[in-house]
Amino acid sequence: MMWNLILRRVAMSILLLLLVSAVTFALQAFIPGDAARAMLGPEATDEQYQALRAEMNLDQPVVQRYLSYLAGAVQGDFGTSLYTGREVLALILQRLPVSLSLMLGSLVIAVAAGVLFGVWSAARGGAVSKFVDALSLVGFSLPNFWLALVLAATFAVAIPIFPATGYSPLSDGVGYWAYFLVLPWFALSIHGISVIAKVTRDAMMSVLNMDYIRTLRAAGIGRGSVIWKHGLRNAGIGISTQVGLMAASAMAGTVFVESVFAMPGLGLMAVDSIHTHDAMVTQGVVLTFAIVVVLINLIVDLLYSVINPRVRVS
């Protein structure tokens, strides 16, 4: 049954990736201008412009260009950058660790802090519950790009505790790597913390009022075991679903956060490629984002099936 679930999810994921690549390619065709015009500038003659377009194969029909791209993409060839001439896959692999560090780190922080706040709120109630409600409201209201600007201005400029820009690879040491990511992580995770805290609190309050929980308490099972072992396991179904939904928003948020902190990741590369009309790079970045989100959701689906075995037969 587990393998049937995996095969269904993989088939749906492949269809989703095809749809994402087709829509992205089509949208870029309608954007005014192209890479040839961006490279030559406004002073180039029409003959020079048309010659460069032909050299880049931009004069071919959109459908033909997309099918050519798709034929290469399924073999791991994302084409070459129209602007730099470098292989898109090499550019993506060079910058992917930066975006993954930002996105996965913020997800881990959001899940850990959100679950702790949610369980604490459900177990204590009263003022703690109101605090979680206030935290959720603040988290929902603050855009991550605005929060990133405020954090950079406060803790990197006014009070220079953390660096305002840049990234240190993990090979330079875990501490130095995390030092550059503290502000970006917080800017990207605050919304997730708010969402997961509220979802966890609501789910835990519902679970803790169930009859089997009362039975466990009456049987003398410890409070900590009831909350963390029995209660959180059942509440984890809703939490894991929310994590899957957050993956897409976290990946989109990296575009803004990387731009604010000048991090050399895929988000910043996507922004640059849009400005230069480098369609191949934009297409490769969007497809990479989609693959990462699909993989995270596949993992969440498998986790969901472990928490709730009934979904294996659905």
CATH homologous superfamily (4th level) name of the largest domain: MetI-like
What is the C-alpha radius of gyration, as a whole number of Å?
A: 23 Å
Instruction: List SSEs in N-to-C order.
Output: HHHHHHHHHHHH
The helicity comes to: over 70%
| Major β-sheet profile | none
Kindly provide the name of the CATH class of the largest domain: Mainly Alpha
State mean pLDDT (0 to 100 scale).
82
How many β-strand runs?
A: 0
N-to-C CA distance: 9 Å
Please state the second-level CATH architecture of the largest domain: Orthogonal Bundle
The poorly predicted ranges are none
- Beta-strand level of the residues, as a percent range? under 5%
**CATH topology annotation of the largest domain:** MetI-like fold
Helix count from the secondary structure assignment: 12
**Domain module count:** 2
Described by the principal axes of the CA atoms, the overall outline is globular
Structural class: mainly alpha
Task: Describe the structure concisely.
The chain is an all-alpha fold.
Could you explain the architecture of this structure?
With 314 residues, this protein is mostly helical. The protein folds into 2 domains: 72 residues, no CATH class; 223 residues, MetI-like (MetI-like fold, Orthogonal Bundle). It is 78% helix and 0% strand. The protein has 12 helices and no strands. Helix 5 packs antiparallel against helix 10 and helix 10 runs parallel beside helix 11. The protein is globular, with a radius of gyration of 23 Å. It starts with a helix and ends in a 7-residue tail after the last helix. The model has no long low-confidence stretch (mean pLDDT 82).
